Amino acid sequence: MPQHHLFITGTSRSGTTTIADFLRNDRAIVMGRERFAWRLAKSGGFDPSLFAKHRFCIDYQAEDSHHAVHQAYYGEAVEYFDQAKWVGDKLPSLFNHYDKLIDNFPACQVIYMVRNPYEVADSYQKRADKTQQQVAQGQSAERLWPIERNWRVAIDEWNESIAKTLDAMQQLSIFVIKYEDLYRDTAVLEDLYQTLQLPLPAMQLEQWQQNADKRKQIEAKRVLGLDEQQRSVIAATINLDNYHQLLMR
């Protein structure tokens, strides 16, 4: 079994999936994508036994996650699971449950993603609008983005996640990545791999460059849908002191 547990968290829409998918390319890391999202939210049961090979890769249970089907990745990870150094899960809501890491995974490594609050708020609103359209078309809302998680909720969660992460840093090892910096310079990648005590594979550098090129194209076309009033409310609500303190850690 891998010797170390690695978790990815951060306010939703902050790049947690981006970094999880990137790390999945490295066979030294076995990384879930909300593999145990519903287990995390329940009292008890979120412990190292979930990250044993059979339970993690093969034994999918309907109560594990909002994902309706078991992703093909897990079946593939069986082949190299025993040789991997890290195993863990990408769980955006994990910042609400740092106590479970402290109690059950005290030696784990956490990657915390943080993103510009305006882009986070805009993304929340777009997801909420999409769900509203899907529900209007007859889809069940059970496994969809909640309609009530709009741009206002985004800022509350953004502030809360940063505050809780600052507090948790006193007891957990947390590596902070600013989403906007992830594909600007390989220094972030090099620092991350140094923290994980892994050699940086050449294929990961190649993948990083490909992703960086794609990201530039996406960002060049990005248009925020927030109006002036929404921007004003966000500016007055965000806790910039905590944000800057987090980036200095």
Description of the structure:
- The protein is α/β, with parallel strands linked by helices.
- The chain has one domain: Rossmann fold (3-Layer(aba) Sandwich).
- The chain has 11 helices and 5 strands, in the order E-H-E-H-H-H-E-H-E-H-H-E-H-H-H-H.
- It has helices at residues 16-23, 37-41, 53-57, 72-77, 98-104, 117-136, 151-168, 186-195, 202-221, 228-237, 240-248; strands at residues 4-9, 29-33, 86-90, 109-114, 173-178.
- It has a 5-stranded parallel beta sheet, sandwiched between helices.
- Helix 6 packs across helix 7 (151-168) and helix 7 (151-168) packs across helix 11 (240-248).
- The chain is globular.
- The two termini are 31 Å apart.
- The mean pLDDT is 94.
The CATH architecture classification is: 3-Layer(aba) Sandwich
Q: State the helical fraction.
A: 40-55%
Low-confidence spans: pLDDT under 50, at least 5 residues? none
Q: Number of helix segments? A: 11
Task: Describe the strand arrangement of the main beta sheet, using strand numbers.
Answer: 2-3-1-4-5
How much of the sequence lies in strands comes to 5-15%
- Total count of domains: 1
- Largest β-sheet summary: 5 strands, parallel
Structural class designation: alpha/beta
Q: Tell me the radius of gyration.
A: 18 Å
Strands, total number:
5
> What is the multimeric organization of the chains shown?
single chain
Q: What is the CATH T-level topology?
A: Rossmann fold
Give the class-level CATH name: Alpha Beta
The dominant shape is globular
